[in-house]
Amino acid sequence: MIDPAAETPPAERLITHLRHVDLAVPDYERQLEFYTSTWKLKAETTDSGLAFLAAEGSPEQYSVRLRRSDDKRLDLIAFGAASPADVDAMAERLGRAGVQLVSEPGPVLTPGGGYGFRFFDNDGRTVEVSCDVAVRQHRRIEEGESVPVKLSHVVINSPNPEQTVAFYQRHLGFALSDTLMHPRLGSMMWFLRTNTFHHSLAIARGPHVALHHASFEMRGLDEYMRGTGRLLRAGVEKIWGPGRHLAGNNTFSYFLDPHGNTIEYTTELEELAEDTWHPHLYDFSDPEVTDQWGTANPMNELIAGKSFNDPDKGVFVAPPV
């Protein structure tokens, strides 16, 4: 079986890495309490109804932004670039291709500053690309600390996943690492990379545009399991895990935040030798594909339904901040 997304010629790669994921939430205080006290991100900057939450091991100014809003939505996904010249080149390339820009390249007005721009992807999500953001003073996470080191990857739902995969390959230079398929359902999830890590973005087939999950890297297996256990003791709803995926070879424990967004603790995401890597097509009806260890609850329709999330109310509507 040939995946049509694998045939899309990629653009020149100008994106270097994933920066942060921004969420709009109606119950702002409850979400802020959860992401700081329970999930263990650090509130570096807070304003009236706006919080910038950092992973303590990351040089990024923040990994999650929370914004008070009447509507639950994914405000944006942010990626890094190496230089203002690369930011300008990407904005020009997208504009020539007819992609709708939300803002032209210019100063970034969030913590750390920098230079960047925003645009809508083919499904209407807002995406930001920036460079020259000030490096945050971060620290080494010590043995036994069950706090996130960094934002690992973001997975999004699309009702048109083949087109969405092709968009990120053709316009942004993402490369396909692996694909998950099902004998009856066809291709269901595509893992895309923009550096040597197996994926920083993945596209899942879903009934509507929405966030599938955001994943946070832990220091190691012990810290990952300690974090998983800490959330279980706190009564946070776990929907899947702990286990280890085959695609990416990373561990997984999926939980729901207070607004029903799926978030994940993970560790040991695979780094690839890009010159020799060939994408796999994995059949996720095989239990070894979804969980090599066999320790997680079986993947079923309930788990899949939780990850569909609510339809995103921010489609083709740029966030106000």
CATH superfamily of the largest domain: 2,3-Dihydroxybiphenyl 1,2-Dioxygenase, domain 1
Total count of helical runs of at least 4 residues: 6
- String of helices and strands: EHEEEEHEEEEHEEEEHEEEEHH
Cα end-to-end separation: 43 Å
Describe the biggest sheet?
9 strands, mixed
What is the average of the pLDDT values? 95
Structural class: alpha/beta
Q: CATH fold name of the largest domain, please?
A: 2,3-Dihydroxybiphenyl 1,2-Dioxygenase, domain 1
What ranges have pLDDT less than 50 throughout 5 or more consecutive residues? none
As laid out across the biggest beta sheet, the strand order is 14-15-16-13-9-12-11-10-17
**CATH structural class of the largest domain:** Alpha Beta
Integer count of domains: 2
